[in-house]
Amino acid sequence: MQPYLTRWLTRWTPALFSGFALLLSACAHHEPAPVGQTAADLLVWSDEFNRIDSDNWSFETGGEGWGNKELQYYTAGHNAHIEFDPHANSHVLVIEARQENPANYRCWYGPCTYTSTRLITRNKQSFQYGRIEARMKLPQTQGIWPAFWALGNNFETDGWPLGGEIDIMEHVGSEPSLTHGALHGPGYSGKTPIFGTHDVGEPVDANYHTYAVEWDRQSIRWLVDDQVFYQVTRAQVEAHGQWVYDQPFWLLLNVAVGGEWPGSPDASSSFPQRLYVDYVRVYQAR
């Protein structure tokens, strides 16, 4: 795991302590302080994935297409496990999309062709404002669609899109080096105009990258490896519809196969495809 040390350093201003702070930062593998995050920010929750913790996550199951004509059946744990990854130098969560149907699962189009996993923190962990981040290595093939995202707590009563959606990271397999961030809410759902794209500069399955949002009452911004690639203000959102982000949101991690955005797998596609998640962390102001 990447250490928390640089995130906990107090901003000592006297010159006497500045060299000591730099030394401590160096000991932390030169991890940069996240853009917009100050030393006053506090780690309020994390999952380091030494196990799949049922206090944090539930498996959401089914093959009804999930509103996007997706092709996979989400299983109750068959497609998720923990392993040690030398590339991350830590234990990681692995979500694996497979071309299979071992239990005669039924999907909206008939017998399912693919299986995968959708993990959610609904009714277990939710957060209002702060920095939400995950360090991940993404799958990459035609037809794959991994995502790290959040839905508002009032999704339970008001549904989508009234409950709001923050897409922290989405990737579609037809764009090997690109990831996206977006908002969906009343007046700006589906093909939302509140949408940004980042080029990581290499295929997304080549290395781990840290995908994050920083969120407060007046704005939300999206980052990859602490580089801001898109931001939107409350006023800009309200030009399209209601700002619905003054409430707690719960988190989702999933790997979809097919669907209206990425399109279906084709002859070039390969399976299984794996999403590796080193950690998920949430920071808020003290």
Automatic annotation (TrEMBL):
Source taxon at top rank: Bacteria
Keyword Transcription included in the entry's annotation: no
Domain GH16 stretches: 6-286
GO BP: carbohydrate metabolic process
Coiled-coil regions listed: none
Signal peptide stretch: 1-30
InterPro entries xrefs: Beta-glucanase-like, ConA-like_dom_sf, Glycosyl_Hydrlase_16
Gene Ontology MF terms in the entry: hydrolase activity, hydrolyzing O-glycosyl compounds
Keywords: Signal
Keyword Signal (UniProt): yes
SUPFAM superfamilies: Concanavalin A-like lectins/glucanases
Database matches in Gene3D superfamilies: 2.60.120.200
PANTHER family given in the database record: GLYCOSIDE HYDROLASE FAMILY 16 PROTEIN (PTHR10963:SF55), GLYCOSYL HYDROLASE-RELATED (PTHR10963)
Family stated for the protein in its record: Belongs to the glycosyl hydrolase 16 family.
Record-given protein name: Beta-glucanase (GH16 family)
